[in-house]
């Protein structure tokens, strides 16, 4: 059975991408140029491009054209707590330290601090009535200069009146949130619970992370609730990770550190 023409065109373009004739980030020829190159109809070219998009090899940018997807070197976040310090994986200083340990450069924007009404999951997870004021602290996080994740933490407003005034300051809390709450309020964080959801990004997330809104690149939404010794929630932290550049590890028990994997370019040279 003869292979449809759009599939032959798609396979030829795939070959050019895999052999780096078309390099990551490079624009594909225009639809008209592809029609002339392959002596094909508009619909045939569009079907070939759709197949490449479905395979995650190219992406269309409205008003700009079609581009080869730039594959990123994934960052692996350890979600379980550090056995030595007890610091929650993926949080603040622990996150920055883990990035540094993998010989990559981390940067977090200054906190955007606000006061808002707790609704939905935030009020439910903090176990406070809807409409109660909470403090929010939002940061955008980068690895090697690339937008990598977004994190927002929510705290009961009465933490400030009880003495944790730095929560409403637009500065990093270098010692980490768990240590600060212990020092300022005597609240010892003894554990946390994570919920992980995969969903389509909203417009703000897609804009910052530079991913399409159509679901081709979903996001992980990690909702973490930290608890004190009485089982009372101390804070809720929501972190958004795009799935094209993030992986997770959860360690249970006494396990050796994970083996480092060769980067894609190294695999090509040794394969």
Describe what this molecule looks like in 3D.
This protein is of the alpha+beta class and 271 residues long. The chain folds into two domains: 64 residues, Orthogonal Bundle (Arc Repressor Mutant, subunit A); 179 residues, Chorismate lyase (3-Layer(aba) Sandwich). It contains nine helices and eleven strands. It is elongated.
Give helix % range: 25-40%
Percent in strands: 25-35%
Contiguous low-pLDDT stretches (5 residues minimum) are: 265-271
- Distance between the amino and carboxyl termini: 34 Å
Q: What is the second-level CATH architecture of the largest domain?
A: 3-Layer(aba) Sandwich
The ordered H/E elements are HHHEEEHEEHEEHHEHEEEH
Secondary structure tally, helices: 9
Which CATH class of the largest domain is shown? Alpha Beta
User: What is the subunit arrangement here?
Assistant: single chain
Mean pLDDT: 89
By CATH, the superfamily of the largest domain comes out as Chorismate lyase-like
Coarse morphology: elongated
| Rg (C-alpha, Å) | 23 Å
List the topology elements.
Elements (H helix, E strand, L loop, with lengths): L4 H14 L12 H8 L3 H13 L3 E4 L3 E4 L6 E4 L13 H10 L4 E3 L3 E6 L2 H7 L6 E11 L2 E11 L1 H4 L15 H9 L3 E11 L3 H7 L9 E10 L4 E10 L3 E4 L14 H7 L1
Helix pairs in contact: 1-3, 2-3
């Amino acid at each position: 059975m003869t292979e449809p023409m759009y599939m032959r065109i798609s396979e030829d373009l795939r070959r050019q991408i895999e052999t780096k004739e078309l390099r990551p980030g490079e624009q594909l020829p225009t639809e008209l140029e592809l029609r002339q190159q392959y002596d094909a109809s508009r619909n045939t070219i569009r079907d070939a491009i759709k197949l490449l998009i479905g395979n995650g090899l190219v992406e269309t940018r409205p008003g700009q054209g079609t581009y080869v997807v730039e594959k990123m070197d994934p960052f692996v976040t350890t979600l379980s707590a550090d056995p030595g310090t007890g610091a929650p994986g993926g949080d603040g200083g622990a996150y920055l330290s883990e990035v540094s340990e993998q010989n990559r450069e981390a940067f977090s924007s200054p906190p955007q601090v606000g006061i808002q009404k707790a609704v939905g999951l935030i009020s439910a997870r903090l176990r406070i009535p809807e409409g109660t004021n909470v403090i929010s602290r939002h940061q955008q996080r980068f690895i090697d200069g690339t937008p990598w994740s977004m994190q927002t933490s929510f705290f009961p407003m009465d933490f400030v009146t009880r003495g944790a005034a730095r929560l409403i300051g637009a500065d990093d809390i270098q010692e980490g949130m768990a240590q600060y709450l212990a020092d300022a309020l005597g609240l010892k964080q003894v554990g946390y619970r994570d919920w992980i959801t995969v969903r389509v990004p909203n417009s703000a997330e897609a804009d910052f992370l530079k991913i399409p809104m159509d679901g081709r690149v979903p996001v992980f939404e990690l909702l973490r609730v930290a608890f004190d010794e009485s089982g009372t929630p101390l804070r809720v932290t929501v972190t958004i990770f795009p799935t094209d550049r993030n992986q997770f590890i959860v360690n249970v028990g006494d396990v050796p550190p994970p083996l480092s994997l060769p980067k894609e370019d190294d695999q090509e040279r040794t394969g």
